[in-house]
């Protein structure tokens, strides 16, 4: 990855005290490969909703940055199972998309089945089933789990290693999460 290459990392500030239908804050951070922050963008998604794919695509479009080479997401089910469709986003933005999670899990099928019923459950599960398989990766002696569209395991390993100076959280996701939390606190103070 070239030093001037840019990655858009998107994360949310989800707090468990929010009810379904309320807004959860999203933030996007454009970060260069040398880990310099080069832009921010903000949006929101609905807790327990089905608007995450459109919201992520909207953040990318709002930035209007041709120099962004990759889209990096913190997980695929923000705001209480608002499942993101990685292949759809990759197709729409024409860039590789990589979702990263930080804990081992048995997947979302069981939790989605317990939390939803009927069409809401079926739509989420259909979206979840379309996603690529999750793979384990070691970065700086930390275990990450990634799934992506438009990149293979070797490219994902290089991307995540380049963007993770220490610990296990890639810089675009770390900055996006900080920005989302700050924006969330700002919203609450209004």
TrEMBL record:
Family matches, as InterPro entries: Endo_dU
Entry's family note: Belongs to the UPF0215 family.
Name of this protein: UPF0215 protein HAPAU_11080
Lineage of the organism: Archaea, Methanobacteriati, Methanobacteriota, Stenosarchaea group, Halobacteria
């Amino acid at each position: 990855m070239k030093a001037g290459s840019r990655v858009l990392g998107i994360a949310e500030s989800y707090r468990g005290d929010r009810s379904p239908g309320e807004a959860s804050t999203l933030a996007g951070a454009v970060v260069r490969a040398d880990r310099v922050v080069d832009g921010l963008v903000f949006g929101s998604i609905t807790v327990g909703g089905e608007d995450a794919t459109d919201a992520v695509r909207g953040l990318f479009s709002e930035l209007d940055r041709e120099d962004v080479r990759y889209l990096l997401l913190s997980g695929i089910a923000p705001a209480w199972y608002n499942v993101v469709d990685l292949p759809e986003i990759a197709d729409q933005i024409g860039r590789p998309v990589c979702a990263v999670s930080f804990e081992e899990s048995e997947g979302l099928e069981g939790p989605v089945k317990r939390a939803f019923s009927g069409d809401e459950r079926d739509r989420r599960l259909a979206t979840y089933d379309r996603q690529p398989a999750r793979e384990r990766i070691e970065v700086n002696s930390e275990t990450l789990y990634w799934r992506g569209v438009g990149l293979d395991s070797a490219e994902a390993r290089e991307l995540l290693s380049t963007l993770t100076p220490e610990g296990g959280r890639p810089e675009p996701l770390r900055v996006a999460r900080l920005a989302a939390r700050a924006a969330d606190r700002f919203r609450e103070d209004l």
